[in-house]
Amino acid sequence: MSTDNPGIDPLDGLRAPQDPACDVFLTGTVFLDIVFTGLDSAPVRGTESWARGMGSSPGGVANMATALARLGLHTSLAAAFGDDHYGEYCWDALEQGEGIDLSMSHTVRGWHSPVTVSMAYEGERTMVSHGHEAPRPAARANRTFPHCPPRARAAVASLAPGRSEPWVATAARHGARIFADVGWDETGRWDLDALPDLEHCQAFLPNAEEAMRYTRTDCPRAAAHALAERVPLAVVTLGAEGAYAVDAATAVTAEVPAIEVEALDPTGAGDVFVAGFVTGTLADWPLADRLAFAGLTAALSVQEFGGSLSAPGWAEIAAWWQRVRTCDGQDPAALQRYAFLEDLLPAAARPWPLRRAVPTIGFRRPA
């Protein structure tokens, strides 16, 4: 397990013998991320740029799987892995390093791992990816991949226009609470009816631009209210402004501003936000606390490079909370917003800032 998780179970006191062993199920593509940081500007055509930092780590769906596992949730991932060195590294990093259940995953012989090169500069990122769609696994190798997911408290889906994933309906039918995000609509239609799996979702978490385009509104808060007519819980991320949420069942709304940080690498921050929100929801926290926690975990993640390995665990959250309470000039109202952490966190064993695992493929041990 990650050394940044001191054994905290956010669902302690809520578990029962009949509950599923899996807290969160997710499926998708695992990339090997190669991240360059410390670039002063975007690369210029015809020139060579030197980065001051570089690392590698599992990426793609591994970003969210790692973020969930580091927050103490029992996480199951169904994914294809190449039988090359990159695939072996990603499998080992996720299963042995993070304690993620890969029993639903499989290795594909002769298929090379997808790769993404990410360049971070000026608080933004530019990515170049390469990969081929993984062939479907043989029936006898894994009969359940991924149409029959394990019983789980929750599942995270990525919606796409015109595409329905059978496993989403299956998971919802078996009692999983479905959380979904969405990508840019390349068709330009921005039609919610073109997202067939939305009907199975408890929570939908688009960013502000996506939300406004899908609802034909010019305000992200109005978009959230429009989305709440389609899903029980609508959460719209507002970038540097934070996030806004509407609970359709209770008519409760919440808005929490973002934490100002110096961003080193935003890769995976959206995945970390979703993981934090899922954690708070399964733990049955108030809506505003869930938004605050999700924003905090995302803010902590962008201060490290590497998508999956930048995800914070409880030790780092505890160190941050200890640090901000001892800094002069803090806004009392802002500190009160995070006071709910007091009963959740352990005494920080190490001072802020903490350095997490270096996101790179390790050197070979001497023979």
Your description of this structure?
It is globular, with a radius of gyration of 20 Å. It has nine helices and 14 strands. It is of the alpha/beta class and 367 residues long. 26% of the residues lie in helices and 22% in strands. The strands form three sheets. The chain has an eight-stranded mixed sheet with strand order 4-1-9-10-11-12-13-14, sandwiched between helices. It has helices at residues 61-70, 85-98, 166-173, 208-215, 220-227, 269-282, 287-301, 314-326, 332-337, and strands at 22-27, 30-37, 53-60, 75-78, 80-82, 106-108, 115-121, 124-130, 152-159, 177-182, 201-204, 233-237, 243-247, 252-256. Helix 1 (61-70) crosses helix 6 and helix 4 (208-215) crosses helix 5. It starts with 21 loop residues before the first strand and ends in a 30-residue tail after the last helix.
